[in-house]
Amino acid sequence: MRLAKAILATSIMTATLLVALTAAGAAQEASADATAGATVDATAGATWQALKPDVFGERPVFDAGTLVTLSAPVRAEDAAMVPVEVAVTLPPGDARTIQKLTLIVDENPAPVAATFTFGGDRRDLALATRLRVNSYSYIRAVAQLSDGSLQMTQRFVKASGGCSAPAMKDEEAALKNIGQMKLRLVQPGQLGDATKASRFARVQLMIRHPNYSGLQMDQVTRLYIPAKYVDHIEVKQGDALILSMEGGISLSEDPNLQFSFEPTGQQIHVDAGDTDGRAFEGALQPAG
Q1: What is the pTM of this model?
Q2: What beta strand segments (E) does 90-163 contain?
Q3: Cα–Cα distance between 116 and 190 in angstroms, integer?
Q4: What Cα–Cα distance (Å) separates residue 209 from each residue in 82, 170, 183?
Q5: What is the pLDDT of residue 15?
Q6: What is the pLDDT of residue 185?
Q7: Sulphur oxidation protein SoxZ domain location, by residue (predicted)?
Q8: pLDDT given for residue 91 in this prediction
């Protein structure tokens, strides 16, 4: 009996100790996570303060409030292809128009992912694409309005290694199909018919291109692949500009853009090029 009581007492003490150690470990891990999160947030803020003058000079950047919304995953499934979507909507009675939109990934080696310039008197727009995110970072969308003001919103995304992640295709296969382009309208029941699209319809533009960042390693030679990426795109409807883009290494492999436009029934034409001087083009013919 005494032996049984002693074993039981020992078991209880052991279980209590294990619970205490587990709780202490969990508390320590939570504390470490909180500290790491605070450090990342602080670093991200410091990064932006250092980065802002290089991108926008001394111009003030305002909190966009509801003018600009940015959607992105809190934790990315694939750091090399993080989906982001931006909407800019000016309220009724606001006479300003939307001129530019800049996408920034604070902690990337080349933070400015792309700058878009819009034609026409745009008072609302939607734009979606995929970005590389190299480490825990804020992604920022900064809209420039016709009065010169900069309106910004941001979202914190947990991802790492996006800029150095190996390309999905080997270099030979990637270069074989480089520049192949698909262009279509994204609207249920009206794909390919620019004459029936509402002004909220979107064009989806896909370009085959490895968009090498210069930080990726060839898995066979173990040498870094030189940077090679789509650096400009221009989309016109007839002679009228829908948008133009200047891009960098933070755009993902096989660049994919979706953007809203106001259809006129005229042909939509795309001219694009990369840092090696290659030129690509495609067109979407209206129905009939």
Answers
A1: 0.81
A2: 98-105, 112-118, 124-131, 137-145, 150-157
A3: 26
A4: 17, 12, 15
A5: 40
A6: 85
A7: 194-282
A8: 94
The C-alpha atoms of residue 14 and residue 183 are separated, in whole angstroms, by 66
Residue ranges of the chain whose pLDDT lies below 70:
1-44, 187-200, 286-288
**What's the CATH architecture for 59-284?**
Sandwich (2.60)
**The pLDDT value given to residue 23:** 44
Strands 61-63 and 150-157: parallel
What are the φ/ψ torsions at residue 129 (nearest 5 degrees)?
A: -160, -170
User: What single letter denotes the amino acid at residue 11?
Assistant: S
Q: How far apart are CA 277 and CA 203, in angstroms?
A: 25
Structure tokens at 61: 């950047």
Contact 234, 244 (CB under 8 A): yes
Beta-bridged to residue 232, according to DSSP, are 246, 273
- Which amino acid belongs to residue 240? A
Q: Tell me the HSE value of 62 on the side-chain side, using a 13 A CA sphere.
A: 13
What's the DSSP call for residue 144?
E
Helix (H) or strand (E) run with residue 249 in it: none
The one-letter amino acid code at 157 reads V
- Whether 105 and 111 have beta carbons less than 8 Å apart is answered as yes
184: tokens are 């279509």
Whole-angstrom Cα distance, residue 280 to residue 270?
8
Q: Considering Cα of 142, then 237, then 89, then 136, what sign does the dihedral take?
A: negative
β partners of residue 127: 86, 259
Q: 149-166 burial string, b = 16+ CB within 10 Å, else e?
A: ebbbbbbebebeebbbbe
pLDDT in the model for residue 39:
37
Residue 167's closest CA among 235, 247, 257, 249?
A: 249
Is the Cβ–Cβ distance between 87 and 126 less than 8 Å? yes
